[in-house]
């Protein structure tokens, strides 16, 4: 299986040659998102020599299944911006199937508050209360991404065949869409 690169992220150094890459941006393994490379050549070389053996293991170790989201009676959450509302939907974003990965934005103020989670299209949007699986881990990751007006971070996620939300905690980034 040939490894593909779909995203470019900032990372420490190339896993193959230990260079930083051009402008500090490195290619990231699209399967496990755990290793980065300065070039396609380094990625292919490392895949063949080492990474192929551990990629699936790294991917499964990094998955966290989220608990049950908070539901509301009116199904809508109104944000502070004028005429902007988000409808709750605990399902893959429109057009995506089970096990297809996508980026989510996670916003949190502190450990005692619910977490707002949504994709870029806002067709997947829900709140995760403090007593649910994954809440503490997400808040801890978000707290390391200091941004203007509170804490937020972006993560890769998917919905599995059973309809459960899976987040890849190690993909936490301040990336903006």
Major sheet size, sense and barrel closure: 7 strands, antiparallel
Overall number of strands: 12
**Integer count of domains:** 2
**Number of distinct helices:** 2
Mean pLDDT: 79
Which key phrases capture this entry?
177 residues, alpha+beta, seven-stranded antiparallel beta sheet, three-stranded antiparallel beta sheet, 2 helices
Task: Please render the helix and strand layout as text.
Layout: E1 5-10, E2 25-29, E3 36-37, H1 40-61, E4 63-65, E5 76-78, E6 85-87, E7 102-108, E8 115-119, E9 125-128, H2 135-143, E10 146-147, E11 150-159, E12 165-173
Antiparallel strand pairs: 1-2, 2-3, 4-12, 5-6, 7-8, 7-11, 8-9, 10-11, 11-12
Describe this structure in words.
The structure is a single chain. Strand 5 and strand 6 form a beta hairpin. With 177 residues, the chain is an alpha+beta fold. The strands form three sheets. Strands 4, 7, 8, 9, 10, 11 and 12 form a seven-stranded antiparallel β-sheet that branches. A three-stranded antiparallel β-sheet has the order 1-2-3. Strands 5-6 form a two-stranded antiparallel sheet. The N terminus is likely disordered. 18% of the residues lie in helices and 33% in strands. It starts with a strand and ends with a strand. The protein folds into two domains: 57 residues, no CATH class; 110 residues, no CATH class.
Quick structural overview:
The chain has 177 residues and is α+β, with helices and mostly antiparallel strands. The chain has helices spanning 40-61, 135-143; strands at residues 5-10, 25-29, 36-37, 63-65, 76-78, 85-87, 102-108, 115-119, 125-128, 146-147, 150-159, 165-173. Strands 4, 7, 8, 9, 10, 11 and 12 form a seven-stranded antiparallel beta sheet that branches.
């Amino acid at each position: 299986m040939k490894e593909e690169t779909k995203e470019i992220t900032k990372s420490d150094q190339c896993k193959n040659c230990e260079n930083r890459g051009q402008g500090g941006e490195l290619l990231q393994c699209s399967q496990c998102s755990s290793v980065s490379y300065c070039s396609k050549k380094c990625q292919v070389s490392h895949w063949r020599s080492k990474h192929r053996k551990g990629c699936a293991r790294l991917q499964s170790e990094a998955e966290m299944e989220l608990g049950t989201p908070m539901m509301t009676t009116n199904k809508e959450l109104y944000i502070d911006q004028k005429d902007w509302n988000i409808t709750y939907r605990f399902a893959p974003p429109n057009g995506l199937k089970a096990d297809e990965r996508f980026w989510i934005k996670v916003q949190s103020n502190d450990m005692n508050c619910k977490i707002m989670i949504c994709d870029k299209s806002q067709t997947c949007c829900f709140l995760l209360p403090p007593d649910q699986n994954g809440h503490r881990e997400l808040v801890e990751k978000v707290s390391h991404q200091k941004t203007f007006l509170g804490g937020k971070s972006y993560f890769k996620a998917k919905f599995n065949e059973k309809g459960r939300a899976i987040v890849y905690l190690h993909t936490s980034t301040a990336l903006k869409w």
